[in-house]
Amino acid sequence: MVEIKKQHTKVNFTNVNIKVEYIVEHDTGVLGQTAKNNADYFEKTNRGASANYFVDKTSIYEVVPPGKKAWHVGDDRDDSDDGINNGNTIGIELCAEKDGTFHPNTLANAAWLTQKLMKDYNVPAKKVVRHYDASGKNCPQRMNTDGKWTLWYKYHKQLTGATSVSVPLPSNNTKESQHTVKSGDTLWGLSKQYNATVADLKKWNNLKSDIIVVGTKLNLGNNVKVPTANPTPVASTPKATKSIQQLVNETKAGKHGNGDARKKSLGSNYDAVMKVINGGSKPAAKPVTNKKRVYLPKSAKTWRVYKTSGPYTTGKEVGFLAPAQYGGLNYEIIKALATDVYEIKTSAFGNVAIYAAKSTGATIK
Q1: Nearest 5°: phi and psi at 352?
Q2: Segment 333-350, tens digit of pLDDT
Q3: Where are the alpha helices (H) located in 270-320, listed in sequence order?
Q4: Which domains does the chain carry?
Q5: Could you give the 3-state DSSP secondary structure of residue 343?
Q6: What is the pLDDT of residue 348?
Q7: Residues in the chain with pLDDT < 70?
Q8: 20 to 30 A Cα–Cα from 244, which one of 80, 148, 179, 277?
């Protein structure tokens, strides 16, 4: 569960009490900003606009107290009384990544916050709406990259179930059988780290999707062997030293985790390994040459990405890239996974698979 940090604006709201009837979801206009960036900006800058909350992949900031009038749905499409206005709503702004997508943790944090507010103010799911529903504005636009609002409907389904996104764990779980989710963690990576399956992790934690929330403690089950933080060295059997390339391969497979966990696991080899992964110098013993890139055309509004483990079929995607918004996108190919299917690394989804046959308009060079 993410802590809600309060940093209230001094200027961008009306200090009157309102009766909350709707929750309105938005996305921020500037890519790559954090919730903290927005809270700092709206605190003192008289922008003539605001929202109650800003959400990113690691934090939630309350800028206008719920129950006070924020300025977030004032651009009514035809000035008609559609029942949704600043005087009866709570506004939530989701921060998008630099590539125009939402990090899975941003969606999870926003869903958790929305469910909390639904409960606090007795707002039914049918009154959790888009900015589009209030004014006709294409917002949250990054939930409508395919023109069909597919991501919005997928996101909204999380709000209608009885189970919260952030699931409490059984009280008899011990510290040794839990993992605290960190930024960058995925169920696939944790399944490799703890020698379990994604299905197991979802079952043990009553998860309905692959989304996990930073700070949540995940139950690892009774039969999972948790790596020892400080193993006792055996003097008679020295541990073999692994090459940088071996550590790179293990890191790509998720064995060494992400963020601080990866730094701790790799120790003094961290900088050398990350330099290779991020496209820097390659290990001298086995230089990698002729690295290729996949280029996605600017004519493509969206491009599906999938789990590297598959399947690579419509309906199984984990997200969408937005080439048209950036005049085209290109990524270094990590490896080929199948015919015309390649593994790439994105800032929003991490390592994913992409289908890039010639017929799609993509080019490889």
Answers
A1: -140, 170
A2: 999 998 889 999 886 678
A3: 270-277
A4: 4-157 (3.40.80.10), 175-219 (3.10.350.10), 244-277 (no CATH), 293-364 (2.30.30)
A5: strand
A6: 66
A7: 1, 75-82, 160-177, 221-242, 278-290, 347-348
A8: 179
Give the tens place of pLDDT for each residue, 76-120: 443 445 689 999 999 999 999 988 899 888 998 899 999 999 999
Cα within 13 Å of Cα(3), Cβ side: 4
pTM as predicted:
0.47
Q: How far is CA 347 from CA 86, 258, 351, in A?
A: 34, 13, 9
- Listing DSSP states for 92-160 in one string gives EEEPPPTTS---HHHHHHHHHHHHHHHHHHT--GGGEEEHHHHH---TTGGG-TTSS-HHHHHHHHTTT
| pLDDT at 290 (0 to 100) | 67
Say if residue 65 is preceded by a cis peptide, omega within 30 of 0.
no
Distance between CA 285 and CA 280 in Å, rounded? 15
Task: Report CA 169 to chain centroid distance, whole Å.
Answer: 22
Supply the DSSP string of 7-19, one letter for each residue. Answer: ---SSSEEEEE--
Residue 183, SS3 per DSSP = coil
Closest CA to 55 of 112, 131, 3, 109: 109
How far apart CA 204 and CA 213 sit, in angstroms, is 15
Nearest to 14 by CA among 53, 72, 68: 68
